[in-house]
Amino acid sequence: MRDDHGGLVVLGTSSEVGKTLVTIAICRWLRDQGVKTTPFKSLSMQPGEALYPTPPDGAIHYHQAYQAVAAGVRPHGDLNPIALWVTPEGVATSIRGRRSDYWLSQPRHVCTDRGRAEIMKAYRGLAERYDFVVSEGCGSPVELNLKDRDVTNLWLADAVDAPCVLVCSTVHTGVFASLVGTLELMAPAERRRVVGFVVNRFAGDPRDFDSAVPILEQRSSLPCLGVIPHFDRAPLLTSVPTGPEQVLERAHSPELDAEIAAWTAHVSAHVALDRLMEGVHAYAAVADGAA
C-alpha cells in the first residue's frame, strides 16, 4: 500500500559512495523549490559519539542533523529512529530520540520486528507533516545474507512503496561491476523501483567519463542522471565532528549552511534533479494506477 505522500530512497552500491551528501543536496534543492521536505534514515551506526543530542536523552547521527539543516527543519529523533554508537561500555542505542540500550540484548527477530515498527511510526509521522521524505539507505542494499533483517534499504522502499535512486562512486575502481552487480542482485520488483543512477566523486573532467555513460545505461537499462565531479570546498560537511558539542556548533552555524548551499549548487550543475523528480512522479503514477 502506498503512503499518500512523495518520497525517495537514496541507495548506494556500498558504504562511502556519498549517499549522505547526495541526500543533503536533494533536500536543499527541494526546499529551494518550495517543497516541504524532510530527511530520514531508518538506522545509523556510528563508531564514535559524533551525535546530535535529542530530548529527552537520545541522539541522532550528525549526518541526519546536517540533512535537517539542508531541508530547513529542526533535527529530532524521528529523522533517525534507530541510532547506534560505540561507547566505552559497549553499543548504545537511541530509539526515536530516547536512550534504549536494552534493545540490542533482545533476540535478533525481536530487534528486527520492533525496529521496523518504530521506523514505520516515525516515517508515517513525517509523511503526515511533510510533502516529501528523502530517505538515505545504509551500506549496500543487496547484502543477501542480511535481507531478512533489512530495515533501511529495499525493505523501507517496499514498506512505503517509494522509488529509489542508486549512487555509485569512482573513487575506487569497479564502478561498472558495483552498479550493474547491485542491480543484478535485486529482485525484479526491487529493480523496478530504481528510476536512475548517479556517479559521484569523479576526479578530473566529467567529460572524460562520457564514453562510460552509455555503457552503464545500456547494461543497467537506467538513465544516468549525472556525474558529480570531486568537491573539496565543504570541510565542515565532510569531516567527522569530535563530539556532540561540535555537532551542535556546526549544525547551527552559518558556515555549514553556506557549505550546503555551495554543495547543492555543485550537484545541481551536474545532476538532472528535475529529471530525477520526473522519474519519482512517473513511478508514483504507475504505482497509483496499479493500486
TrEMBL record:
EC number: 6.3.5.10
Keyword Metal-binding: no
Top EC class of this enzyme: ligase
Matches recorded under SUPFAM superfamilies: P-loop containing nucleoside triphosphate hydrolases (SSF52540)
Keywords for this protein: Glutamine amidotransferase, Ligase
Gene Ontology biological process: cobalamin biosynthetic process
MF GO annotations: adenosylcobyric acid synthase (glutamine-hydrolyzing) activity
Protein name: Adenosylcobyric acid synthase
Organism: Streptomyces netropsis (Streptoverticillium netropsis)
